[in-house]
Design goal:
This protein has 13 helices and 15 strands. By secondary structure, it is an alpha/beta fold. The chain folds into 2 domains: 225 residues, 3-Layer(aba) Sandwich (Alkaline Phosphatase, subunit A), CATH 3.40.720.10; 137 residues, no CATH class.
């Protein structure tokens, strides 16, 4: 299974305006001609598509029956114990323009810059009884007493251009933490330099999505492995008991080499996460997002299809989550899926796009049943 992060969008599909429709994807086109394109609904209306729910469904876990908070799954990568009455929560750097959210994934920053900015707000966390834990990029974790967090504060993704006052936490410690991090970062040297260069800085830490700790599965499916560098992906796979192989380099070639090694060892099921998505989906023009999809088609889809064909297996390509074309907000819309390989009989030809999948009929749901469908088709 190849998960293309950030590839599906709610766009004017009839006008072929989505990045998947605009992109030149000869490899996906070739697979679609010989395989099946169909829609899959990974999250229902009761699940938050900005949470870990879509990824949980992809590895066969039903989001309706388990905790889905991003923070709880990211916390599986850290050796942190919660005290009684404490919760994890996501803590994201965001950029502001006055009192408006300007960028929900500011940067990119160097590793050294992120470390300095993190230290600048760690004291603010401590002063209100929060513990701030370093994560990856601009997404971190915090630990706080349950009563200090407002669960109604949403994920910042998809809310660029909106005023922060619309999401003011109702809990005093939560609101104070937001204010103190703004004060700590407002005049920070790194942010001042970035503003002079016309770039966004990190202007506050947005805390959202409180959750209790979860336990990883002691054992997952036999002869199964996952590949990818995305921290949330790794946490979800650990929750499912699936061992994760992290490529040595953050590029498609390293991803392919890792998969090829697993197939040579006889691993029967391999989950692969493309690791490019959220920043691309939220921070780039539609034309550039189409260029990104075309690059993955050439550098990832093609080589993986050849490796799967050599092993006599099947390849499932699927988008991780649908997003609003304008805001980037995660949606519960069905996503396109493409199944190709040994024993797969082609159906009505359709492109691997949102419109192509929608034309194949009702979406497969629940999404957590996708693996069973693929294995027993």
């Amino acid at each position: 299974m190849l998960v293309l992060a950030g590839s599906a969008e709610r766009a004017a599909c009839a006008a072929a305006e989505s990045p998947l429709a605009l992109a030149a994807t000869p490899q996906l086109d070739r697979l679609a001609e010989r395989g099946r394109v169909f829609p899959v609904r990974l999250t229902d209306e009761g699940s938050d598509p900005a949470s870990a729910a879509p990824l949980l469904a992809l590895v066969g876990l039903d989001p309706r029956r388990r905790a889905c908070a991003r923070a709880a799954h990211l916390a599986l990568l850290y050796d942190v114990e919660l005290k009684p009455g404490e919760y994890f929560a996501s803590a994201n750097f965001v950029a502001l323009f006055r009192d408006t959210i300007a960028d929900v994934i500011p940067g990119p920053f160097s590793k050294a810059e992120l470390e300095v900015l993190f230290e600048a707000v760690a004291g603010a966390a401590h002063s209100v009884g929060f513990r701030l834990l370093p994560g990856t990029g601009t997404e971190h974790l915090t630990v706080a007493p349950a009563g200090a967090l407002d669960p109604r504060v949403p994920c910042p993704e998809g809310h660029a251009g909106e005023r922060t006052a619309a999401f003011e936490p109702a809990c005093a410690p939560h609101a104070l933490f937001h204010r103190l991090t703004r004060e700590a970062l407002d005049g920070h040297e790194i942010n001042q330099v970035r503003r002079e260069l016309g770039e966004n800085g990190a202007d506050m830490v947005w805390v959202w999505g409180p959750a209790e700790a979860i336990d990883p599965a002691s054992k997952g499916p036999e002869s199964t492995a996952a590949v990818g560098r995305d921290p949330l992906w790794q946490g979800v796979c650990r929750a499912a008991g699936i061992p994760v192989k992290e490529p040595k380099a953050p590029d498609p070639a390293a991803l392919v080499r890792t998969v090829q090694a697993l197939l040579r060892k006889g691993t029967r099921t391999v989950f692969v996460h493309s690791a490019r998505g959220t920043r691309d989906a939220l921070c780039r023009s539609r034309e550039l997002r189409a260029e990104g999809a075309a690059a993955l088609d050439e550098l990832l889809v093609g080589p993986l299809a050849r490796a799967v064909e050599k092993a006599g297996g099947r390849l499932l390509v699927i988008s991780e989550v649908a997003r609003d074309s304008e805001t980037g907000r995660a949606l519960s819309d069905p996503v396109p899926a493409l199944l190709w390989g040994a024993g797969v009989e082609p159906l009505r030809p359709a492109p691997f796009t949102e419109a192509g999948a929608a034309g194949a009929g009702r979406p497969l749901e629940p999404g957590s049943g996708l693996l069973a469908y693929v294995r027993h088709l």
